[in-house]
Fold this protein.
Amino acid sequence: MPARRFSIGLRVALAMLAMTVFVSGTCAAKVLHNFNPKGLDGNSPEAGVIFDAAGNLYGTTHVGGPNGHGTVFELIPNADGTWTEKVLYAFGNNLDGIFPLGGLIFDAAGNLYGTTSEGGPRTGGTVFELMPNADGTWTKRIILAFGRRQGGTGPTCTLIFDAAGNLYGTTGGGGTSGFGTVFELKPNGDSTWTELVLHNFRGGDLGFDPYAGVVFDAAGNLYGTTIDAGLNIGPGRVYELIPSGNRLWSFKILHKFKFDGHDGFIPFAGVTLDAPGNVYGTTYEGGSLGGGTAFELTPNADGTWMEKTLHNFKKNGKDGYILVGDLIFDDSGNLYGTTVLGGSDDQGIVFELTPSGEEAWTEKILHQFKNDGRDGREPWAGVIFDANVNLYGTTVAGGAHGGGTVFEVLR
C-alpha cells in the first residue's frame, strides 16, 4: 500500500458482524456495503460516491481489488433493501494507473471518468474513461498520462465537465515549477484528448499543491484551494482562475489562511458556491478551537474577498474535527459535511450547518460513527443527497471487515 498524502493515525482492522441500521446522533445510518481488505472488491474508499439516473451508486477504492491497486465499483439496490456490489474495473500493474484517490463523474453518454494518483505509461498518474458495453462489462482507456513535469503529476482530484464537454482538474505536483497545475482536457472528436495547462503553481506566497479539484461559477471562472504556501507546509490558499481570452487564464488569490489562532488552515477540500457567488469550504485544522473550520468567502465591491468563519470545530471534541471532504447545500441553504474524527467515540461524524442569524450558524450532528466500527470509521469524503434528501458517503476504515463502508444516513 502506498503512503497516503497525509495520515490521521494507525487504523486497526476490525472483523465484526454487520448490522443493518445504527442509531447514533439524531439520524440512523445504514451500511450499504462493507469493503474487505482480504477480498476482491477493493478497500479504503477515500472519495465519495455518485448516482446514475437509475439510482445505482458508483465510486472508487484507493487500494485493494484483485491486484491491490484499487477499483471502480457500482452498488445496485435490490428489492429487499440490500445492495449488490459489482467491480467495474480493477487497476492492474503500474502502466495501468494505480491508486485512485479522486471520485468519478459521468458524461452525457453514461461513460465514467476519473483519475489515478500514480502509475500510467509516464508514471505520474492518469485520467481514465470507463465505457459500458452491451454485455454489462466496461472498457477502460487512458485519455491522459501524466509525466514527471510538464502537464503535472499526481492527480488526486475529482474531475468536472463544462457545458462544451471539456474536462477540468488539478495535479498536486509537476508543471513548469513542480508545484502542481490546473488543467483542461479537450476532446478532439477522434477519441483522443488534448491537455491545456491553465495554471502552473509556482509555490511561495501564491500557494502550491492543489489536493482538491475545481468548480465553476456562473460566469465561467474556476475556484479551488491549495494546501501549501511557503517553504514548508503552510496554511493554504483559496484561488480563482478567470478566463482572459486566447486560452489564457488570470490567477487570483481570494484568501490566505493564517496560523493566527483564529483562522483555519490547510484546506484539503475543494470549495462550493451558492447562487450569489459566495464561496464555502472547510479547513483540515485551525480555527479558534483547533479542530478545523467551515468558512465563507464573500466578494467585496473593490474586488477583495471577506472571510467569515461559520463554525469552529473543537480538536478532540464531540462535534467532530479534522475536515477533508467538500460541503454541499440543500435547497434551504443548509450545509452538510463530514469530519474524519470526533463525535462521541472519536470516529467521525456527519453534520449539518444551519444559518441561524446574521452571522451565526448552528451545527447539528446527524450521525456519529461508533467505536465498534460496524458502520464504518473516518469518513474522508463529503456526502451527497438522493431524491429524498438522505445522505450517502464512504468511510476509509471500519465496517464488518475493517476495509471501510458505503453508508446512507436516513433523514
Remarks:
- The radius of gyration is 20 Å.
- The longest strand covers residues 290-299.
